[in-house]
């Protein structure tokens, strides 16, 4: 049956793009791509920032049971941060996910601006963990809402777009706020996650699988980063 105009409009306006939906979902992984500090032009799926997250989501899927896990991405209204637009879109996507799949635990995986949005959206009660990849974290980025959160930041030590030092400082402040937080530096890693891409993808897969498990595991990259005095280096 052809999709009605109203159905098509609702789908186009949705903040959640579903890539895989099992019959009985028990968890979900959502990706959030990068963007710009400002800009109200429409975000499109063919923009490079959005395309870069496709192999990241595929890598995460390899470590999961697809009979149980929803895979999706957050669709932004605009390309820019604009004071927090992508974070608002993430909250909308989480609400849509709840209506679709029920109250399932969610891991958010965000890159650059999407990492910042994912960390803001960790305030949502359905978020079990956040993996921020080379996130954009300006000085003073809030951490108080992360009191009970679990989060891992992966950052390339040769990133010239966002600051690895800012990520390490953010993790330190998040720990002070009560979060289970860890920082991991990718040696020779760049912002686009192209250099040493295999390591980026393997690390993503392992951390996402860890964060989806209930409780605090004692093995794996996330667990190791949570207890490290400083940033781990791969």
From TrEMBL:
Keyword annotations of the record:
Hydrolase
Q: Which Pfam families match?
A: Abhydrolase_11 (PF20408)
Q: Does the keyword Hydrolase apply?
A: yes
Every copy of the KANL3/Tex30 alpha/beta hydrolase-like domain together lies at: 101-197
What Gene Ontology molecular function terms does this protein carry?
Answer: hydrolase activity
Annotated protein name in UniProt? Alpha/beta family hydrolase
């Amino acid at each position: 049956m052809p999709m009605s105009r109203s159905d098509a409009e609702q789908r186009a306006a949705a903040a959640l793009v579903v890539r895989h939906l099992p019959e009985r979902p028990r968890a979900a992984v959502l990706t959030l791509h990068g963007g710009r500090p400002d800009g109200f032009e429409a975000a499109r799926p063919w923009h490079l920032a959005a395309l870069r997250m496709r192999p990241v989501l595929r890598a995460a899927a390899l470590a999961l049971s697809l009979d149980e896990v929803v895979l999706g991405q957050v669709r932004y209204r605009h390309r820019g941060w604009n004071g927090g637009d992508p974070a608002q879109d993430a909250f909308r996507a989480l609400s849509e996910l709840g209506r679709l799949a029920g109250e399932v635990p969610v891991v958010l995986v965000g890159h650059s601006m999407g990492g910042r949005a994912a960390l803001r959206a960790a305030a949502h009660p359905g978020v079990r963990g956040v993996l921020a990849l080379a996130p954009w974290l300006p000085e003073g980025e809030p951490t108080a809402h992360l009191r009970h959160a679990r989060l891992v930041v992966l950052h390339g030590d040769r990133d010239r777009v966002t600051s690895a030092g800012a990520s390490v400082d953010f993790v330190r402040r998040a720990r002070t706020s009560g979060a289970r937080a860890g920082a991991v530096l990718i040696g020779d890693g760049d912002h686009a996650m192209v250099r040493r891409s295999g390591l980026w993808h393997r690390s993503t897969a392992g951390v996402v699988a860890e964060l989806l498990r209930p409780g605090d595991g004692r093995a794996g990259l996330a667990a190791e980063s949570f207890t490290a005095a400083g940033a781990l280096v791969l």
